Amino acid sequence: MEMLIAFLILFLLLGFILIQILKLKTTSSSNLPSYPLIGSTLSFNKNRHRLLQWYTDLLRKSPSQTITVDHLLRRRTIITANPENVEHILKTNFYNFPKGKPFTDLLGDLLGGGIFNSDGELWSSQRKLASHEFTMRSLREFTFEILREEVKNRLVPVLSSAADGGRTVDFQEVLKRFAFDVVCKVSLGWDPDCLDLTRPVPDLVNAFDVAAAISARRATEPVQAVWKLKRLLNVGSERKLREAIRTVHESVSEIIRAKKKILEIGGDVSDKKDLLSRFLAAGHDEEAVRDSVISFIMAGRDTTSAAMTWLFWLLSENNDVEEKILEEVRNKRSLGLGFEDLREMSYTKACLCEAMRLYPPVAWDSKHAANNDVLPDGTRVRRGDKVTYFPYGMGRMEKVWGQDWDEFKPDRWFEEEPNYGTKPVLKSVSSFKFPVFQAGPRVCIGREMAFLQMKYVVGSVLSRFEIIPVCNNRPVFIPLLTAHMAGGLKVKIKRR
């Protein structure tokens, strides 16, 4: 009986303390409720299902376009949509803002020590090697040949078949399969043939999808110990993740071993054009090469397809913009666009930039402060703080893009009206205002290759087909590691 009474007293005492804590609510300049000990955990949990809009609303209210979210049992998160802060994080004080162990832990099981999940010397050495390869004309020409073959022999026939049969297709899925074929051919020299819609996609594709989705959800756990305990016990989502990662690693390792045999017996020059062959030829060990090519596949598989999916939907809502792209493409060799044609397609590039401003392939990216710091807007950063710059929110800030931020206006990417008879000139927009390809030392080395691919696909598709969405509802943006359109983009295809 005494034990029971003691327990009840303790329970009531803890309840009283909790009530007092909740009464001590504090409110930041962004009206984000915060309490002693538990911080903003209650608000975070309440808004977990709508973090993008919640963060954006709070940032709009913040005079500095920066907010601080305090968490239970982990370091606070600083989220910013302020271009000056972004420049400080990604360039000015770059070495104070590495990805950090909390971030690399999230993706470490999948990406290992690959370039997109590493810091310091490990990152620097991979960056130098990759930068060298990506500036090689031979890789650019190899990529362009793959792109041309994939469009001509697979993408166009798939869309032609859908048009002739009057079938509804998920255009997002088609573009994802296309992008996966291209990135695997460029990175691995391996053809998964995903655009053969008569058969299931390879296990590697599904494994990538599962691994990316579950790894992304780790970051939204209010208490990080939860997913770590599940991983330790090998239960639930963490068990599925482990199985998916095993499939990814084993599949890629098998491709690497086969490639090594080809190189060892003196394969011809064509066997040495893909990134995998180049990395192996440079003498890197199998695990390091595996991590590197997995990182490149993760970076290239869904980013371009996501950007194009949103652009095609936006064009269906803005016929005048679509007509301008068609006019630009008609002035080129629309059935066989070459390097020079693509370089001159400035209006198509502006449309892609505008689509990514509103629907960035990567909605947010985080670093972790190595030491105390102060951001340009006066926000104090403590060592270990998670510091997140937020492209999705930045594209929706009136202070950054003006009162018409919510309008799809490709013309905002051009200088003032051109003089009579001159071509419009794209503005030089700061990558810290538009950080969809990151910025500073970590700026995406495949940026120009991505634009090359997207312009080629957009031009090739629009010159042949009308893409007509069958649903009138506004699509939903889902972030994860790479953003996508919830439920896909269901369309009818009509020949022009």
Automatic annotation (TrEMBL):
Heme binds at residue 444. SUPFAM superfamilies: Cytochrome P450. One of its GO terms (cellular component) is membrane. It is a single-pass membrane protein. Keywords: Heme, Iron, Membrane, Metal-binding, Monooxygenase, Oxidoreductase, Transmembrane, Transmembrane helix. InterPro entries: Cyt_P450, Cyt_P450_E_grp-IV, Cyt_P450_sf. Signal peptide: none annotated. It is found in: Membrane. Its cofactor is heme. GO terms for molecular function: heme binding; iron ion binding; monooxygenase activity; oxidoreductase activity, acting on paired donors, with incorporation or reduction of molecular oxygen. It comes from the Eukaryota. The keyword Heme applies. Belongs to the cytochrome P450 family. This is Cytochrome P450.
